[in-house]
Design a protein that fits this description.
The complex is a heterodimer of chains A (about 70) and B (about 260).
Chain A: H1 10-41, H2 46-67
Helix pairs in contact in A: 1-2
Chain B: H1 2-6, E1 23-25, E2 33-34, H2 35-54, H3 64-109, H4 125-146, H5 148-156, H6 166-213, H7 220-260
The chains are: A mainly alpha (about 70), B mainly alpha (about 260).
Chain lengths: ~70, ~260
Amino acid sequence: MSDKTDKDTQSGKADVWALISTLIAGPALWGGVGYLIDTAVGGRVFIILGLLIGAVMSFYIVYVRHGRS
Amino acid sequence: MLVLASQDSGYHPPSIAEFFPPALLFEGTPFQIDRIMLIRVLMTVVLVGFFLIAMRRPKIVPRGVQNLAEMGLDFVRVSIAEEILGKVNGKRFLPLLTTIFFMVWALNLSGVIPFLNMPSTAKIGVPLLLALLTYFVFNYAGIKAQGFGPYMKSNLFPPGIPKPLYLLVTPIEFVSTFLVRPFTLTVRLLANMIAGHMTLVLFFGAAWFLLFQAGSLLLAPVGVLSFGAGFIFTLFELLVQVLQAYVFTMLTAVYIDGALHAEH
């Protein structure tokens, strides 16, 4: 951990690139689950719900991991 | 244009077939060699040759080719490795990061070299191989530094959130770290290079057709315009090529850094 002290703020910017996978994973995963439920039950509610929950959770993870310090 | 395109000698828009040239050697075997594979080999030889020549008789005060090579090496060391991983770990992973950066850049560069005209990273083989290498390294480094259990815990269970939320969060973290990361690494490089190549083929193909094949003076100025656009996009492509090499290498460093430390 002490190794990180000699870094400046640039690495914070670099981390932003790594967030992309989190932001993709949320909607993709829970949207996918919603889609599967929709095909089983019929309708188009769960995919929308899944996408929204996934997106919110993704942003929440970003906040938890990087937003609060 | 559609009418022109439908004629046999007419304009042929670029298609995905560009990336599947006919086999030249060992057709039908897993070792099939086509034009793109030959470009990969050529660019690798050029890259190795460049560094061999540059570092043949290294001087303390570098000049010429050595200076150029050291500028490149210093960029990876200072702006990527030490910047993201810090001095100690940066040094540890420098050989890997340097290799990735220059390999991606060199293989991208063939996209704007006349007569090669094909970024050899525009087929999935190279991007996928490098992404898997990154994937293996950051997971290995993480497990080695933290131990398997703590490594998985730090990846899948971000600290300090209400327990029921882990039901939603942990699957996302799993998909994000272990599935989406290698996927986005591969696709980002691959798609950028495919799109860049298609753009150049489109403009230069159109310029060639409008200037020399359409047989109409009215279309010639459009051909000149298309050639100009192709030239501008070639410059743009030069930028994209080095940028993609940078992004790939930087993400490798960021993933390794994340894996080495439990807390972000």
